[in-house]
Amino acid sequence: xxxxxxxxxxxxxxxxxxxxxxxxxxxxxxxxxxxxxxxxxxxxxxxxxxxxxxxxxxxxxxxxxxxxxxxxxxxxxxxxxxxxxxxxxxxxxxxxxxxxxxxxxxxxxxxxxxxxxxxxxxxxxxxxxxxxxxxxxxxxxxxxxxxxxxxxxxxxxxxxx
Length: 161
What we know:
mainly alpha, 76% helix, 0% strand, flat
């Protein structure tokens, strides 16, 4: 391993190479041997690569959201334009309103403005209770049938099979 300082160009090259090798499954020690640096330096380089990936990914996601919102705004603008034209013609078309509402819903979804949905679980609890009761009744009937099979049928009412 070399103790020479790396110039910025060499450091950038090493970081890219270390990241590629790590993704290929190489250990930090083997990456260090290959690049002529310590395992600790490889660890530092990989941390820097992860930070850069995270930052670039966040920027890419923000840019993607911005583009989608711009396209959505263009669609909504066209729908409003169409709505105004139909009003002027005296024949309002509700499809434009539905399209505008769809744009608003989509924008809220993209921006994460929708509140989480709550589901009523009372109905599920009552179904669970009904299932438990049915299961208990089935077990009781199975037990009676088993007893009848072992002891022979009884003439008591309710024990008919």
